[in-house]
């Protein structure tokens, strides 16, 4: 495996986390644990720039991993979980610990249930773009649900 393939695999899998059982859960947990220090303190424009970079970088990396393994949406690719989890909290000015817990649970729920059009979106775009898109949409569902919970005072 060439250096570029190793780098793409390391990025797409968040190092060794993508090789653990239930890799999506581990990727989401890692994303929510680092968000208070890496993502949430950033101003909105920087947050959305980070999301765009994760989407683009994740698309490229997951595409390379998918082609190398010759498997559609390999479980090893969990950078999409970071994207979805961070989209879930991107609209909150200063998330509380409880909101991070809700964000984690909601994103995992929508990522697993894949309500329309989340499941269909996996096939709208080829390769890594499709891998990233479904989690981006699940993140939007989660952000909306989290906003409703906050509005209700939960």
UniProtKB/TrEMBL annotation:
The keyword Disulfide bond is assigned to this record: no
InterPro entries: PgpA (IPR026037), PgpA-like_sf (IPR036681), YutG/PgpA (IPR007686)
UniProt-listed Pfam families: PgpA (PF04608)
Domain called YutG/PgpA: residue spans: 11-148
Single GO MF descriptor: phosphatidylglycerophosphatase activity
Species name: Fundidesulfovibrio putealis
Single GO biological process annotation from the record: phosphatidylglycerol biosynthetic process
TM regions (residue ranges): 46-65, 86-110, 130-152
Name of the protein this chain belongs to: Phosphatidylglycerophosphatase A
Cross-referenced PANTHER family: PHOSPHATIDYLGLYCEROPHOSPHATASE A
Alphabetical keyword list: Membrane, Transmembrane, Transmembrane helix
